[in-house]
Design a protein that fits this description.
Heat Shock Protein 90, disordered N terminus
Length: 164
């Protein structure tokens, strides 16, 4: 059995056990193919919640940033590693849970919010480092847990977000 197959097993078992309700669904993808996974998730959200374009945009930004962090930092840019995203509609929010077998987050916690410094010129801004600020801004109070060799990140996106 390949290492990839060993990692996929828990995801596939969990995905098979998903609710029959249209409000809960699991998606499994591989690093190196994250764009396809995001497109599949957004297609599902547009089908289940078609009249929520602000939610779709927020979901795309936050899920893309979370998955990018998994790919770049958790798996250190190693392609072909499994990632699971589970969506559940809970009242006025869509709960998003990501699972991966990458390295743990530093300190076993969600990084703190670091607000970008608006006083510096555009040329002085760093290329990266804004992802967690974005996640915290659109999905307040994300929760991270390390369960054995699995990372779990859970956050909620408000369904009734008003247009900006």
């Amino acid at each position: 059995m390949t290492a990839q197959m060993q990692h996929e097993r828990p995801f596939l078992r969990d995905a098979d056990a998903q609710s029959d309700l249209p409000e809960a669904r699991s998606f499994v993808g591989l690093t190196g193919e994250i764009r396809h996974l995001i497109a599949e998730i957004l297609g599902y959200l547009m089908t289940v919640l078609p009249d929520r374009p602000v939610l779709h945009g927020d979901a795309e930004l936050v899920i893309a940033e979370a998955l990018n962090n998994i790919e770049e930092h958790g798996y250190e840019a190693m392609p072909g590693m499994p990632v699971q995203v589970k969506l559940s509609v809970l009242g006025d929010a869509v709960q998003v849970e990501t699972k991966d077998f990458g390295i743990p987050m530093p300190g076993l916690t969600v990084p703190p919010i670091h607000r970008p410094d608006a006083r510096v010129s555009r040329e002085q801004l760093p290329e990266g480092g804004f992802g967690w600020y974005l996640i915290h801004s659109l999905a307040p109070e994300p929760v991270y847990r390390r369960c054995g060799n699995m990372n779990r990140l859970i956050f909620r996106l408000r369904i009734n977000t008003k247009a900006h």
